[in-house]
Design a protein that fits this description.
Blueprint (H helix, E strand, L loop, with lengths): L4 H18 L39 H30 L3 E3 L22 H4 E8 L5 E6 L5 E3 L4 E2 L2 E7 L2 E6 L2 E6 L2
Antiparallel strand pairs: 1-2, 2-3, 3-4, 5-6, 6-7, 7-8
Length: 183
Amino acid sequence: MKKYMKWIVLCVVTLPAIGYLFYPQSSAPTPVPPLSQYQSIATSSLPEPPQSHPSIVIKLDSNAEKIIQKSNELVQRKLDDALKKLDVEVRSPMTYQVPDMSKNFIPDKDTSVETPALNLLDEVQFRGVIGTGKNQTAYLSVADNLPFKVQVGSTFQGIKVIRISPDGIEIRKGKQTRLLKGE
């Protein structure tokens, strides 16, 4: 701000001084001509306003009215059926199960001995199930990594999800099958 202070002061002082120097020095403003001078100018004529036309009325016979009424009834039935179907789907109870995650498996002492590689099916952990009916989604993790979601038929690391139920999830790799349950 200090850097620009010279320029600010210079502008504040010099701009009004320059304005007074070059301000026009006329004696009196020119008068505005009276309105009567402009009355002699010819104006173009405006077009006529649109004429009002009689409104168009379509008369339907009794068959057309019956067809319209019948189609309205059919549409109303379809909408009612769709609402009933949605109402049944929404009212079904939503299942949600999460296993107990409070258990900590921390060894008593630090060992630098590496453990042998476990079977991948044994490393899969069940985290929870969300959803109803056919829309169930399970959350799994492998070897304490971040959970990911799967559905029936999903495949991850060569493991296929066979079945998801509120009680747990069944997974298969090759000929081995494992049922993971919540605790």
